[in-house]
């Protein structure tokens, strides 16, 4: 896989279930968290040194692709047993590098995000034989993390059946905080003292000025009474610092990224969880990924019975309507419309919270993984 295992908690959940099902797991990819890597190694995961490293120069990228393909071919030819083994591939733009290698083996494709379908002329010159449709159609199984995304892929690739839908629900349900770093406990204790008797609205995730815009949410909290507090937690960067410089106060608190699962010590303090996903015009992936977002934080919020608030997105809207677990803010988004949506939640909080618990319990992550394995 291309992405670091650390930033993919759903993949960590999947590995945990596979191990519980008695599946021998060999992980080909990067895991920069030594603690997490050691944990999985103790459970039996074999981490193979077959890692692709993205490069910034075209010629370096080409050399890296050649090196990686040679390494992958060698590993699979020696270790892959076609009678018993299958490649579980996290779909990414690495597909064009590996597709012709995988055709000699059984593989399934697991989509966490859509990728753009159009490539540069340089790509087309180098990999003119690559077809995303053919690559997907010849997979033993196709998996998506969201229902609408599964239908879109079925239509794009003319699949005979709907891909499996495996939501990004954390697994297992029980959370082990025994190894929580002391600095995280200190941060949480300090935070608790700041939010005594407050109604806490939480945003957790990455900070991006276009796709994950938060300005209107900050403006909304500023105009509400001192009873309401916004906590913004996650990966920093320039937008994080800009927001912090503009809004940081006793009512709007900024917290840096806390690695999983320890960030849930902050999550469980919230009363409402914010989701902010705005389509980026100009690309297929930039529009579809936000519109039909499938964030694991909907389960992190709902695990604790935390109702959700988001901009108007078809994927989240249908969830809110079915389970009564959240509210949307319709366009154009204004601080006033956010305030009104928050008040609707707090005025009927118990029912929204029950809806969140109901949504969380509706997904049997382990059962779906079992269904996928049984289909192979």
Describe the fold and architecture.
- With 376 residues, this protein is an alpha/beta fold.
- The chain folds into two domains: 179 residues, Rossmann fold (3-Layer(aba) Sandwich), CATH 3.40.50.2000; 180 residues, 3-Layer(aba) Sandwich (Rossmann fold), CATH 3.40.50.
- It is 46% helix and 14% strand.
- It has 17 helices and twelve strands.
- The strands form three sheets. Strands 9-8-7-10-11-12 form a six-stranded parallel sheet, with helices on both faces.
- α9 crosses α15.
- The mean pLDDT is 93.
- This is Glycosyltransferase.
- Keywords: Transferase.
- One of its GO terms (molecular function) is glycosyltransferase activity.
The domain count comes to 2
Sequence of secondary-structure elements: HEHEHEHEHHEHEHEHEHEHEHHEHEHHH
As for the CATH topology of the largest domain, it is Rossmann fold
Distance between the termini: 21 Å
Q: How is the main sheet built? A: 6 strands, parallel
CATH-defined superfamily of the largest domain: Glycogen Phosphorylase B
Strands, total number? 12
Strand arrangement within the widest β-sheet reads: 9-8-7-10-11-12
Based on secondary structure, the structural category is: alpha/beta
CATH class of the largest domain: Alpha Beta
CATH architectural group of the largest domain = 3-Layer(aba) Sandwich
Keywords: Transferase
GO molecular function: glycosyltransferase activity
Protein name: Glycosyltransferase
Organism: Bacteroides uniformis
